[in-house]
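Lay summary. Proteins are chains of building blocks that fold into shapes, and those shapes determine what they do. In this project we predict the shape from the chain. Here is one chain we studied, written as its sequence of building blocks.
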Amino acid sequence: MSDAPSTIELRQMVTDAVQARLTAARDDAAALDPATGDFLDQVKQLTEGGKKLRAALAYWAFRACGGAVDDPAIFELCAALELFQASALFHDDLIDQSDTRRGLPSAHQAFATQHRAGNWRGEAPQYGLSAGILLGDLTQALAFDAVAHAAELAQLPAPHALALIGEFSAMVRTVALGQYLDLLAENQTSLDGSARLARAQQVLYAKSASYSAEYPLRLGAILAGAHPVLADELSCVGVPLGQAFQLRDDLLGVFGDPAVTGKPAGDDLVSGKRTVLIELALRNLDDLHARVLEGLLKRGSLSAAQIDQARLSIGRSGAVTAVEQMLADLTADALTRLDSLDLPAEPKQQLQEIAAAMTTRVA
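And here is the predicted shape, written in a compact code that computers can read:
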């Protein structure tokens, strides 16, 4: 390939790399037992869709640091990022007890349905839960296989290969810790409003921003053999960009259109998520309205009228305006940092366009 791929072409090339790895994994699994081959179909379904934004960041960071247009190593790294995201989503849906993902039944629900359809022994929900955990673990292992293969294809010297895998591992650990902090925020009752907001901001970075932008940019640079200073600078672009991305996600989790997001209306409200948006609303509302919103968040299930009531309270609090301003400031910070870097024109422009797509999306 002599020319850079378009957004659609890049997305398809990443999908192809993921599916090639899944096909090989499915064959290996089926050799153990045919039943295990079917197990991986849920990964295939989840990774066929999506915008592949994390992969796009890694690809253009790789190109910005001198990587070749069609180097197979970068597509293996992109596959690793997509597989890790799938793993994180499998586990996230279990923790949040989400029934759908991108408009389809979540993996654990699909496994539970399979159990019921077969009239198998035991409890269908527990089977779905157990299979979902194992699928998330297996997909994460496939992600590590892919990043190791990327280092091999790039013929990185051993220290650089270890650095790449070490950074990928750091990303996985950061997300796991962020997921725990998110779980803690939903359950812990001893923190005051300021501490809860600080916790929500920690979750914003660790659970999402780190792997949504910071690490994809850093990993792409390392794979291309970038100087550590440039890898650090690209990573610093990714921190505010990833935070802005997650703030947009928080807004969509409350006010998003289910027909567009593929998730139920007010999904974060039903899950009782303690996002920056929610914590700002609780801090800004008077005691009576804050208690009402707090009560709704603790219910575990909400009617359409209750979701509308919660949305009205959040809107009344001024939290939406505050979050939109934070999002705009973070995006501007990321773009200013990116503009200051001495990068080739095309990769820089592509990274700017991806940043815009990440922070203005509607799904």
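What the prediction tells us: The longest strand covers residues 100-101.
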